[in-house]
Amino acid sequence: MAERLRAVLDTNIFLSALLSRNPTSPAKEIVKRWLDDEFTLLVCRPLIVEVLEKLTEQGLDETRLTEFAALLDIATEPIDVAAKSIPRTVQFDPDDDVIVACAVLGKADYLVTYDCHFAVLGEEYQGVKIVKALPFLWALRSKLVS
Fold first, then answer.
1. For a Cys-Cys bond, which of 8, 11, 80, 99 suits 103, CB 3.0-4.6 Å?
2. Extents of the domains making up the chain
């Protein structure tokens, strides 16, 4: 079997997946495939905190929020991102630097985002491909059939 893909999902992918009413949303499919254990999801504490804060702000009900927090705790690979290991990379949104650091330190294959601020890094940064949801799904689907 092919080597498992490793990915970091930006906050906006989680928000899109959990808040979208579109049943065919690419972000929803990514989260479903993560829950089906089709790839390794890398997270760091600051990313989890941001995701849960944004979901709370958007009014996700307490039960779903608690269940999702538990999944992030048990069904992911935690990456320790020390403050000193976070280089300044995303010029227009310094909060995104920790996401880049998580991807690089975790040796991710992909950083999946809808955030245009990552464009300053190009299509790849230190070996991590920076893509939107659909290209990641295509890569994931092709790994599963090979």
1. 8
2. 6-145
State pLDDT tens for residues 37-92.
999 999 999 999 999 999 999 999 999 999 999 999 999 999 999 877 677 777 66
Residue 72 and residue 69: Cα distance in Å, rounded?
5
CATH for 6-145?
3.40.50.1010
Residue by residue, DSSP assigns the chain as -PPPPEEEE-HHHHHHHHH---TT-HHHHHHHHHHTTSSEEEE-HHHHHHHHHHHHHTT--HHHHHHHHHHHHHSSEE----GGG-----TT-GGGHHHHHHHHHTT-SEEE---GGGGGG-SEETTEEEE-HHHHHHHHHHHHH-
Q: Whole-model pTM?
A: 0.92
Q: How far is CA 124 from the centre of its chain?
A: 15
Q: How far apart are CA 45 and CA 78, in angstroms?
A: 8
